[in-house]
């Protein structure tokens, strides 16, 4: 019952957070100096065309009416029409959302287990060659933004040094995102190298603290192998504090995927957001901003629940 109350409380806080974000997104979009109607139709548009455009998309209504209509559409699953072509946003972005979610899911599926393994082994080999090499390499990778990592991988693996993988993703409209496996290697590798250093360093620090605890020492005195001590006793107790970092990096991946998609020409929300900003297509920009915010809220909620489920002390406190 205690965990259920926590989930309900976190859900309520998440709803409030999304409401505040929606206000900020709408106010900032309204504060832009350019007129969306003239920006989309061009300077040659007549006053009649501009008026018809504003009426079609509700721009002739008051700001309060525009916000309530937009928020109601978001809640009901109908975020409105795209300014550029008049197509419903969900139809316009449906495939792109699926492609981006697949890229995020695949990147998380690779980077999270890899981070746990690297962090745990680095803690086990504390101050040894692997640990020192991992510390230096993780610091270097953490200091490099995604577009730099992606550009370096492109130079090394797709162009000048070794031409192993294609430099761009070749997924046509309507195709599944995994239809070009070779093209996905560099985007996934870029996301993995962007996320792994942060999580692995937190896992290492948490593992070192657990490995010095009394119950781990007792397990060693019982004659258990070091591998059993690590994977059965130490890692389950050290993984709790890392859930928050994992959640933050999954949410960070939602923003980082935009850069990666633009770099490798991946047909996801990154290219859609770039085009929408250039075309002053405000409904698409607003929807994608709320979509990324939703990922942040959901990932943090799951991290809170996961931390409690794997931490006996917290479960006891809430029971």
UniProtKB/TrEMBL annotation:
Principal localisation: membrane
Matches recorded under PROSITE patterns: ABC_TM1
Signal peptide: none
GO cellular component: plasma membrane
CDD domains according to UniProt: TM_PBP2
Domain ABC transmembrane type-1 span(s) in chain numbering: 97-303
Gene3D superfamilies: MetI-like (1.10.3720.10)
Pfam family, one: BPD_transp_1
Record membrane topology: Multi-pass membrane protein
Record keywords: Cell membrane, Membrane, Transmembrane, Transmembrane helix, Transport
Cellular localisation: Cell membrane
Protein name per Swiss-Prot or TrEMBL: Unannotated protein
Organism of this sequence: freshwater metagenome
